[in-house]
Specification:
Chain B: This is histidine kinase. Chain B: One of its GO terms (molecular function) is phosphorelay sensor kinase activity. Chain B: Cytokinin receptor related to bacterial two-component regulators. Functions as a histidine kinase and transmits the stress signal to a downstream MAPK cascade. The complex is a heterodimer of chains A (149) and B (971). Chain A is mostly helical and 149 residues long. Chain A is built from six helices and no strands. In chain B, strands 1-3-2-6-5-4 form a six-stranded antiparallel sheet, with helices on both faces. A six-stranded mixed sheet of chain B has the order 12-13-11-10-8-14. In chain B, strand 4 and strand 5 form a beta hairpin. The chains are: A mainly alpha (149), B alpha/beta (971). Chains A and B meet through helix 2, helix 3 and helix 4 of A and helix 28 and helix 33 of B.
């Protein structure tokens, strides 16, 4: 029954992520793609890719914002990328904060950008933790299933 | 003469009219005298008397009036005072003269005494100087005032020796001279005296009066000289007795003794006379404005002061009046008033305007809010409905199911209502964009009737009749036309209890003039979509449609596979023919009372509140229909008779797409024709209420029935079992596959393998899959479908494939078996991954590049069926890349900036298959933008760059599937 418990845990986690607005229907799509397409591990793949990508982008933005003269266009381009990625995986909150971030970029407000970056970072880490938990659970389930077989 | 003036200065009401220095204060008399001294001025006075005229007879009468008496008394007093003054002056002079005389006498005495003494002493000796006697005499006789002084002076001047003869002689001479002078003085004094006496005599009161009066007169004239004033006195009969008019238009004798009526005629005279009479009667002075319009001096306004004149006994003996011309002032005043009025009006208008502006703004905001709210409500509502639908698929007992059905139908109603509101606000705000697609009017009419028949709960006959002249295909916004028809039909059904409801569609014989221009208003776009298959119609049409006719739409899918997809290329090559289609939707229902007709197309209006209660609805439907029809350049109107039925007719301009030379798809066309022979020939449909087949008959069999014996078909509420297919939405394909395709296994097995190759290619970011290219070329060249995708169908025999094709023409499996080539241009890895996964899910081959430049290189080397292009990318964005690709397609050569580095690449690919090159140049690759922000501006930019359509990111399965279905050539 451990498998069922794990599954319960996973679905609870997922539904909490949905209800908190961390992820949206796009993430559902990914799950569906995975289930319908018979490609196990697709979500994990995408999520990992997203996390790595986002971390890189956030680091890039942080470096840019530390420069004495901030190139807001560059920052904006990065934020745009991050927004695209998060939209694709359905990381709703990150996407929203990115939209706010872009506003600050357009206003060329360094303080605003720094603040937005902090928010984005928070949201992202929060999400990444959840994703990691999710992936771990999935792995455990898989392992369990494997054992069962 | 001028006495008249003085009769009036007493007047206390308007004292300013008169010179202040006239009359009452003594000190001012002197001033007056000074001014009066100039003799010439006095002469002038006489001369200036001309403008005034006087009746002297009347003057006497006036003198008897109280004022006249006091005036006379004043004059008398004045004269007495003057006379006393003169007497005093004379007395003074006399006194002075007497004194002088006394002094002279004294002097003379003195001289005589002196002389005497001398004579005594001298003549005592010599006694002969006779001349001296005379001297004495003279001196005695004529004394003068100053003789003493002279005498004394002269005494001193004598130089000669005293007492000598010469001395005495000299002295005698001098004395004689003095005497002479003294005589003279005396004479002049006498003359003066006489003169004075004469003067004294001339100072009679009358002369004094007239002098004073003359001076007053003179002043008056001086003051009034240039005053635009008329002063007049009239007697009790209102005859003029005196008038002063500085600018006389009439001679004096024409005025004196006459009344106003005799002199003037015209407006205002009567009024003035009435007022004068009133003044005389009441004895109270008054001031008024009179507007005259007389032939004599034209239109003028005078302000007039009228006062009564009383006799000594207190009787009124006439009026005095002073009038002043204030025409200019009045004009100015009127102008000011006019301006003020206009200002007020303007201000009122402005307020009104700003108020209405405010209201408009409010309305706009309210509308905006309504739209927003509707939108906000729609999302959760669709959630509720979806959940209810899922619930319907679970195990339910009959009661639960009935409840659920009510829930669903109510929900659908709300959804429909919200959609209506959204549509309306979209049309009204101008946000509604019409799409231009090629469609088959017969199909549309049939679908609408089918839909209506399916949900029909009454015993009604639904019929459709389409004229033979209606073109097989026309171009227009099919969704909107369907919406209009559905709306009208559902209205008709709602208000019809027995009889029939039907649609007549035919071409208007006489095309309204300028229909081409009208056609141009259809917002046709050069990159208009390729033909919309019926499958899309059903997927995009209102939800309940789908649900109700699920079976049909499935069947349609199968039928419509054959619709030539490439109309879009020929569409704008030549001049398109436009037709006006007239569509009548008639019923035999309750009809509409005539008085309600004008309100019919108004928002939220229904024929009557009774109807609203009885039949429900919001009254939005017809408003939307009308707006939509007008948006498309047509008109909608209604003819109705109460209790007999109504006919709603609309005419629409539609373009007839130019027939494509179908040689491209020789195998597809005939088959499509084969499929459609039944429906193409069919000019009428009939759905009769009888014969309801059992609920559980499968959708396909129903469809077949319909197509074979299409006249006798009835529809029924959809079975719940069919519903779940719809719910599964985009994923229906998979289900369909598993349900009725034998190739499920091959599909599934194919998926991963394709993906793995794609993953390899992902690293290169550039894909040249000659194998696939060859496939697509061969299939396009006219090879049958069975040739394509051999790796999928390898386990099947060709027979099987053919059978498959004929049975499930558009089975959702077919794309996977055909290996269409898709180029995904996207720089975001995550996006790539998601999109790739989705496309693979749909069974498409996919090449991936990371920016516009790479996309161009890919296109240079490989033929793609569709390109999904991100807009924002590094190096070269999607818009730029699209422009280059389009220009290549049009001209056949690449822009120099993006020319392929190795020409042989093209030539090699050209060599590999001869037609590759030709196809490359001739065919237009559909390019779909993937935009991050789905605002209309951005979309327009995409379309302007030459893209065919756009999907907004994040791409989801449904979007991408619809898009591919629409743009991928069907197999």
């Amino acid at each position: 029954m451990a498998g069922a418990a794990l599954r319960d845990q996973l679905s609870a986690l997922l539904s909490s992520m949905f209800s908190q607005g961390l992820v949206d229907e796009q993430f559902e799509q990914l799950q569906m793609l995975q289930d319908e397409g018979g490609t196990p591990g697709f979500v994990a793949e995408v999520v990992t890719l997203f996390c790595d990508d986002a971390e890189r982008i956030i680091a890039e933005i942080a470096t840019l914002l530390e420069q004495p003269i901030v190139s807001f266009d560059k920052v904006d381009a990065f934020v745009h990328q991050l927004k695209g990625s998060s939209a694709s995986v359905g990381a709703q909150k990150v996407k929203f904060t990115c939209m706010q971030f872009r506003q600050f970029c357009q206003e060329k407000s360094r303080d605003g950008c720094l603040m937005a970056l902090a928010v984005v970072r928070n949201e992202f880490y929060d999400l990444r933790n959840k994703f990691q938990t999710m992936l771990q659970l999935e792995q455990q389930i898989q392992a369990y299933d494997h054992k069962q077989q | 003469m001028g006495d008249e003036y003085l009769a009036e200065p007493e007047d206390e009401v308007a004292p300013s009219m008169w010179p202040e220095n006239i009359g009452d204060k003594h000190q001012k008399q002197f001033k007056m005298e000074k001014l009066g001294k100039g003799q010439d001025a006095l002469k002038d006075v006489r001369f200036q008397e001309k403008p005034s005229s006087v009746d002297f007879q009347r003057l006497m009468e006036l003198a008897n009036s109280e004022k006249g008496v006091s005036q006379m008394q004043y004059f008398v007093k004045h004269w007495e005072y003057k006379r006393a003054n003169t007497a005093r002056l004379l007395k003074e002079q006399i006194g002075f003269l007497c004194q002088q005389r006394k002094e002279i006498e004294q002097k003379k005495q003195q001289i005589l005494e002196e002389q005497h003494f001398q004579d005594e002493s001298y003549y005592a000796v010599k006694r002969q100087v006779p001349i001296l006697d005379e001297v004495y005499k003279d001196e005695w006789k004529r004394p003068s005032k100053k003789s003493d002084d002279l005498c004394h002076n002269q005494e001193i001047k004598i130089d000669a020796e005293y007492d000598s003869i010469s001395y005495w002689k000299e002295r005698a001479m001098q004395l004689e001279k003095t005497l002479e002078a003294s005589f003279q003085r005396e004479r002049s004094l006498e003359e003066k005296l006489e003169e004075n006496i004469k003067n004294l005599q001339s100072h009679t009161p009358v002369e004094e009066f007239s002098g004073m009066l003359q001076r007053a007169d003179y002043f008056l004239h001086l003051v009034l000289q240039s005053a635009p004033i008329v002063i007049a006195h009239q007697d009790t009969d209102l005859r003029y007795r005196f008038i002063f008019n500085h600018f006389p238009t009439l001679a004096d004798e024409d005025v004196i003794g006459k009344t106003d009526y005799e002199i003037l005629s015209g407006e205002g005279i009567e009024e003035m006379n009435n007022v004068k009479k009133e003044v005389m009667a009441s004895g109270i002075p008054t001031k008024r404005e009179f507007i005259f319009n007389t032939p004599l001096f034209g239109a003028k306004t005078f302000v007039t002061y009228i006062e009564p004149v009383f006799s000594k006994s207190g009787e009124t003996i006439g009026v005095n009046y002073v009038a002043m011309d204030i025409t200019d002032q009045v004009k100015r005043r009127e102008k000011m008033a006019d301006i003020r009025v206009r200002e007020a009006v303007q201000k009122a208008k402005e307020t009104e305007l700003s108020r209405s502006l405010h209201i408009t703004e409010e309305t706009m905001r309210a509308k905006q809010m309504l739209a927003t709210m509707s939108h906000e409500i729609r999302s959760p509502l669709s959630g509720v409905l979806s959940m209810a639908e899922i619930l319907a698929t679970t195990k339910l007992d009959k009661e639960q199911y009935q409840l659920l059905e009510v829930m669903l139908s109510s929900g659908d109603l709300v959804l429909q209502l919200i959609n209506d509101i959204l549509d309306l606000s979209k049309v009204e705000s101008g946000a509604m964009k019409l799409e231009s697609t090629t469609f088959r009017p017969r199909e549309v009419v049939k679908h609408v009737l089918q839909t209506a028949a399916a949900s029909l709960k009454k015993e009604l006959t639904l019929e459709g009749c389409i004229g033979d002249d209606v073109p097989v295909e026309v171009t227009g916004d099919v969704l909107r036309i369907r919406q209009i028809l559905t709306n009208l039909i559902s209205n008709a059904v709602k208000f019809t209890h027995e009889g029939k409801v039907g649609i007549n569609l035919h071409v208007l014989d006489k095309q309204p003039p300028g229909c081409r221009i009208e056609g141009g208003q259809l917002h046709m776009k050069a990159h208009s979509a390729s033909s919309v298959t019926a499958a899309e119609h059903s997927s995009a049409s209102p939800r309940n449609c789908d649900k109700d006719t699920l079976g049909c739409s499935n069947h349609e899918d199968a039928c419509n596979t054959g619709i030539p997809p490439n109309n879009n290329f020929g569409e704008h090559d030549g001049g398109e023919e436009a037709v006006w289609l007239r569509c009548d939707v008639y019923d035999t229902g309750i009809g509409i009372p005539e008085k309600s007709l004008p309100l019919l197309f108004k928002r939220y209006m229904q024929a009557s509140t009774d109807h609203a209660r009885k039949y429900g609805g919001t009254g939005l439907g017809l408003a939307i229909c009308k707006q939509l029809v007008e948006l498309m350049g047509g008109t909608l109107n209604v003819v109705s008779k109460e209790n007999e039925g109504s006919t709603f007719s609309f005419i629409l301009p539609c373009k007839i797409p130019v027939k494509e030379d179908h040689s491209d798809d020789p195998d597809v066309m005939p088959s499509s024709h084969g499929d459609f022979t039944t429906s193409d020939i069919e000019g009428s449909f009939l759905f009769k209420p009888q014969a309801r087949p059992c609920l559980l008959s499968s959708g396909v069999s129903v469809m077949n029935n319909k197509f074979i014996g299409c006249n006798l078909m009835s529809y029924h509420p959809p079975s719940i079992l069919e519903n779940h297919k719809l719910f599964s939405n985009g994923f229906a394909s998979a289900e369909d596959n598993s349900a009725n395709s034998t190739s499920t296994a091959s599909c599934q097995s194919n998926g991963p393998s394709t993906r793995s190759t794609d993953e390899e290619q992902l690293d290169n970011a550039m894909v040249i899959d000659l194998n696939r290219q060859a496939e697509s070329i061969s299939s396009s060249q006219g090879g049958t479908t069975s040739v394509s995708g051999p790796n999928i169908h390898e386990e099947k025999g060709p027979c099987k494939v053919l059978e498959d094709k004929s049975l499930h023409k558009k089975s959702k499996c077919s794309p996977s078996s055909n290996k269409t080539k898709i180029l995904l241009v996207e720089d975001n890895k995550v996006n790539i991954m998601v999109a790739k996964s989705m496309l693979e899910q749909l069974g498409h081959g996919i090449d991936i590049v990371n920016n516009g430049m790479q996309a161009i290189h890919a296109v240079q080397q490989c033929q793609y069926d569709i390109i999904l292009m991100d807009v924002h990318m590094p190096e070269m964005d999607g818009l730029q890349a699209t422009k280059f690709i389009r220009s290549f397609e049009n001209t056949g050569c690449w822009d120099t900036s993006v020319k392929p580095e190795h020409d042989q690449m093209i030539s090699s690919s050209a060599l590999s298959s001869d037609c590759a090159c030709i196809r490359k140049q001739g065919k237009r690759v559909p390019i779909i933008a993937m935009t991050a922000n789905s605002f209309a501006e951005s979309a327009e930019e995409c379309l302007a760059a030459g893209m065919d359509s756009y999907i907004s990111k994040p791409v989801n399965f449904q979007n991408i599937k619809e898009c591919l279905q629409r743009y991928l050539p069907s197999q």
